[in-house]
Amino acid sequence: MEKRTSDQISYNMKQVxxxxxxIELLLRKELWxxxxxxxxxxxEIIGKPDIAFIGKKVAVFCDSEFWxxxxxxxxxxxxxxxxxxxxxxxxxxxxxxxxVTKCLTDLGWTVLRFWGKDIQKxxxxxxxxxxxxxxxxxxxxx
Length: 142
Prior knowledge:
Elements: H1 6-14, H2 22-33, E1 51-53, E2 58-63, H3 65-68, H4 72-75, H5 83-106, E3 110-115, H6 116-121, H7 123-136
Parallel strand pairs: 2-3
Antiparallel strand pairs: 1-2
């Protein structure tokens, strides 16, 4: 395998989507079909939730395994190159996720986080959890 240049790597990294990902689209389509109306990627809400039910104060995040550190204690050893870059970067993402969740929870939001693989394998179950949270919430934590 040919070694990539830093320009090639930079180009590839810029192609990574941060909204309207496959997992978000899957989940949003299912929620829409259920008659649940939401807003997406709202900048005014801390953490810019992928899906937000503003009146109900329910925020949904669709976390990809790579960027959000799924099974991190085992996976961080998978990096063979550029460990000094990737390990702190992903650990900061994990920490930021915790900070955002705590901040929103402190503000009375219900925060739901789903791993991408769970959305893909158990779409209906994830949508059920969201629907239940929306139906039971009156703008306060459930």
